[in-house]
Amino acid sequence: MPEVVIAGAVRTAVGKRNGGLAGVHPADLSAVVLTALAERTGLDPALVDDVIWGCVSQVGDQSSNIGRYAVLAAGWPESIPGTTVNRACGSSQQALDFAAQAVLSGQQDVVVAGGVESMSRVPLGAAKAGGAPYGPRALARYNDFEFNQGIGAELIAEKWGFDRTRVDEFSVLSHERAAAAQDAGAFTDQIVAVDGVTADEGIRRGSTVEKLAGLKPAFRDDGVIHAGNSSQISDGAAALLLTTPEKARELGLTPLARYRAGAVAGSDPVLMLTGPIPATEKVLRKTGLGIGEIGVFEVNEAFAPVPLAWIAETGADPALVNPLGGAIALGHPLGGSGAVLMTRMLHHMRDNDIRYGLQTMCEGGGTANATVVELVS
């Protein structure tokens, strides 16, 4: 069976809404990480067979195939193509999976995967432009329920019995872990500076359950979900380099990890955000690994109940889940988040000699990606 290795991973810092990255066009933001990826690995961009780029709100500054315009903005040869992927929040994780499949198939040798989202410039929901993507038949199938991620998060909290205190405690922990990681320099090597922004902007130091108790519920008057236990609106980009072990040796590249397997799963679109549970089961079956063999998990913190329910169902050690904090503290630049999380996880695995890592991402519409990677010593 052919192998795929990830031979480079770089990201921007994640900027908060209207923060330090808000003035940067998303194509230029993408170009920064593409340029840094080539420089840090020593790769000649002319050798890249394709650039597969995740982006969710593909309108305005992010319209018309931003993957291609990222290549041009980076100054890479015009012969290098680019394409743009949308699997909601998992777009750049799906880009990684597509890139791995292209290399595994033997159709391509060197592929760059990643993604971007500038939520300051292209607001969440902008692509709908007053329309409804579901259509009457899908709505009728679910008794005209208006699909809503926030309501889904409320339903998950209700189903698994997570009260306001529990979800807020998880959110505080996310900020504490992210602050500790930032202070320890855990993110320094993976981040490329953009307009002087070198650190993730969303971390709220000194966050407490008592402070969060003052925030009003966002989706139900008697609900538990609010701005403080939800992912942050953010700007950011990340890029990953995939190739074969043989090609890596030929080009003098140093692999970080082997791509072991990827999986995608569908789930109840009303709950919407439980897909990481079956996706995790699916990818573990593919690898033959047990949950106890994984040394680190990145489970995107779209809302606090999502990783909490995932932990409850999988039996994963909570100490190994999002050990550097997650989207509640570090932000969630939609189409870029899959590659951002993978970059964080790969560097954490390298820095701590962790053999296996698993990343999973809930997505709008009730789907989820899961990916397992193995450290290359």
Automatic annotation (TrEMBL):
InterPro entries: Thiolase, Thiolase-like, Thiolase_C, Thiolase_CS, Thiolase_N. CDD domains: thiolase. Residues 253-374 form the Thiolase C-terminal domain. The keyword Transferase applies. Gene3D superfamilies: 3.40.47.10. PROSITE patterns: THIOLASE_2. Pfam families: Thiolase_C (PF02803), Thiolase_N (PF00108). Residues 4-244 form the Thiolase N-terminal domain. Belongs to the thiolase-like superfamily. Thiolase family. This is Thiolase family protein. It comes from Nocardia jiangsuensis. The lineage of its organism: Bacteria, Bacillati, Actinomycetota, Actinomycetes, Mycobacteriales.
